[in-house]
Amino acid sequence: xxxxSSYSIRDIHKAYRxxxxxxxxxxxxxxxxxxxxxxxxxxxxxxxxVAHEQSLRCQERxxxxxxxxxxxxISVCLKDxxxxxxxxxxxxxxxxxxxxxxxxxxxxxxxxxxxACLVGKTNLDEFAMGSGTVDSIYGxxxxxxxYNDNWRxxxxxxxxxxxxxxxxxxxxxxxxDTGGSTRNPAALCGIVGLKPTxxxxxxxxxxxxxxxxxxxGVFAKNVDDAAITLNCIAGPDDLDSTTIKSAFKPxxxxxxFDISNLNIGIPKEYHCKDMSIEVxxxxxxxxxxxxxxxxxxxxxxxxxxxxxxxxSILNQCEVASNMSRxxxxxxxxxxxxxxxxxxxxxxxxxxxxxxxVRSRIFGGNYFLLRQNYEKYFxxxxxxxxxxxxxxxxxxxxDNKVDLLLTPTTLSDAPLYSDFTAKNNRxxxxxxxxxxxxxxxxxxxxxxxxxxxxxxKLPLSLQLMGxxxxxxxxxNVAKKIEALVNFPVLEFNQYLNKN
Length: 498
Hints:
Oligomer: single chain
Shape: globular
Number of strands: 11
């Protein structure tokens, strides 16, 4: 599997056609890798029976037809906040520890239609509230690039999905992205993380965190695989009223894509005080490469400084609303109390939610109080519009640019001990600084690994584009990927680190 760790979807499909590999063999090796890297804690639930059944159906199709589905026989995993019929979906919380959905999320249905094989459900911060994947009831996920006694975080909240792809347990993975929860762990684990335009991919079956910002995201080892996966999952869905209703045109990645006529913007406000020197140098390195191929301009997004505060307020307000469905009556945990309905509600939610979830519920309810509604919630909504207008101005105003280039995170992967020394709110404010504005504006963004830090850990950059610019975004990301030639973490490297 060492060699297969760096195989792309096209490489695997070629091996299928040449009969040097078959889907069952690939799935067996992915499951074997998942078991051999259990200490990384990428998975909450492995699904070997489901994966084997799906791989056998893939083999039957391969024998009867030379045409392959886009993800035929490709291993995938899902963040454990996407509903999967007859497979438990926990959100890494006591509240849903024993919850088994009776239906599939649209994204999982589309993956199965494309021929994918599900190897498991991956770890996350409880109800996706975090930026480190350290607040799961199943324990934290660990970064495979540096796993030892003094280990580093995987990023979050979709850290399990990022670890699964980075360590070779899955070819591609699905996460959710509310304020950077796909791009952040992708950056820290040295893989590609794509957040599509809001509404391009159905949210049906994704257990919601913030309805107005949640977007299913894609993890892959390279840009081509991310594009292929997006082509499988994007498009309108009658079950989700927030999806874009126009038909999705599949994205094409061109090997000879010309960027000479593009103008790439560098937003000055993203150069913040907490950003490490290594990240700044990485940013400058790629900027210098692009200046030889296209135009690069300095731009301003003046409301960036308030964006994280606005995101925090709106996040907590929607969390307070979304978490109200967990009352101990319909599904999920039910506390053993019969004194009153009020006591049932309070005890169930106290036992079912961790401190992070409870604090966001309290904060959201405070902001939504009648006397605070206009002061906090309405003001935050108005500022969100200004943040969105900032992006509109740089993409469509005078001296417009085609894309923006920024860091994804402010440093390489922090040590677990350093990360947990701060509370969840402060860590999210730090880790989400560069990523959450894209969610506020609903625009697409992608994180691309660029180089290794002095600690031999990945450093990544982010591209952002106007709504529905995924084709341009992915083609430019592919160009950067080819220029920097970032190394893949091979299994023997992981073993040598331990």
